[in-house]
Design goal:
Length: 328
């Protein structure tokens, strides 16, 4: 029977959140509940015909794909996966089936990431993580927080998530400004936001929240000059992708107290090493890439995955991102 691997199911919910029976009756399904390094994956995934991924939790570079001789199908969430070598998959004859974000099951749960971003923002400006640790240890309050009402939220990106963040900010009586490479004054004004230049966004904001797609244009977009121009009492929130921020520059700014703190859900390397500096700084509130991780969202992800694997088992693969692999 075909061998199907479900990767990085940290919460152990993959088989509960979708009906896998169309796949299980015709294949052997194995769930991996911890992250595999590339070296571990070479051995662990060698027998598998199908590998099911969840966003960017598992990198699939050429060096790994070429060592998986049985691999025939990779499923991904979204239409592309930045840490998947699509060319290598095509050259090896491995199909890549993407999900269908137009499906109503996805539109019903698209608030997962902005809700997490807003929760992380509040936790960060009120030092909840640090005070939680202190309470657990038997202590009491030592920090002071920031009142959001009357403050300025700077949105780096005003797409779907950015617009939702702007709506939340208005409920909290915040002023909202925004910048991105292609944002116009008219587009910003249409949602009650003032467009500013990038430099002004960092200078004026009390909280900067990042909502951009990682690309060559945005990699390292927030670096030492941007961080240096922020107010000393300002905070940086990143729930988009780690490499948009120069990590070394951020660690330096936080260590030196040049900004008040940061709330991070994403990192250059995920998960970060146990002794990573960001894990140790008291003015950083951390979450383990939880933006999309809700039961509803994962249920939508896995339902799409089942559909794609079942179609492949039927010999009629669907939503193939690399059709050239069909010719191999």
């Amino acid at each position: 029977m075909p061998q199907v691997a479900i990767l990085d199911d940290y919460a152990g919910l993959a088989l509960d959140l979708a009906d896998w029976s169309p796949v299980q009756i015709r294949s052997d399904v194995t769930v991996f509940d911890r992250h595999l390094s590339e070296a571990e994956a070479v051995d662990a995934l060698r027998p598998f015909d199908v590998v099911c991924t969840v966003r960017e939790r598992m990198a699939l570079p050429r060096t790994l794909i070429e060592q998986l001789p049985n691999l025939k199908l990779i499923t991904i969430v979204g239409k592309s996966l930045p840490n998947l070598d699509m060319a290598a998959a095509s050259e090896c004859g491995v199909l890549v089936a993407h999900s269908n974000f137009a499906n109503p099951r996805f539109s019903a749960v698209r608030d997962a990431t902005p809700e997490l971003a807003w929760g992380l923002l509040i936790a960060t400006v009120r030092n909840l993580a640090e005070e939680h640790r202190r309470m657990r240890a038997g202590g009491w309050q030592t920090t002071t927080g920031l009142t959001l009402s009357g403050k300025t939220l700077g949105l780096l990106g005003l797409g779907r998530i950015g617009k939702r963040m702007a709506e939340y900010a208005k409920v909290f009586d915040m002023q909202v400004i925004a910048w991105s490479q292609n944002l116009t004054e008219q587009e910003a004004a249409a949602v009650g936001v003032r467009r500013v230049e990038k430099a002004a966004l960092f200078e004026e904001s009390d909280v900067v929240s990042i909502h951009l797609v990682l690309s060559e244009r945005t990699r390292g977009l927030v670096a030492e000059p941007e961080l240096a121009s922020m107010k000393p009492h300002a905070y940086l929130i990143n729930t988009s992708r780690g490499p948009i921020v120069d990590e070394a520059a951020l660690i330096e700014a936080l260590s030196a107290g040049r900004i008040a703190g940061a709330g991070l859900d994403v990192y250059d390397v995920e998960p970060p090493p146990p002794a990573h500096p960001l894990r140790l700084l008291p003015n950083v509130t951390l979450s383990p890439h939880l933006g999309y991780v809700t039961r509803e969202m994962l249920g939508a992800f896995y339902s799409d995955t089942v559909e794609a694997v079942a179609a492949w088992l039927d010999g009629t693969p669907i939503r193939i991102a690399n059709p050239e692999a069909l010719q191999r």
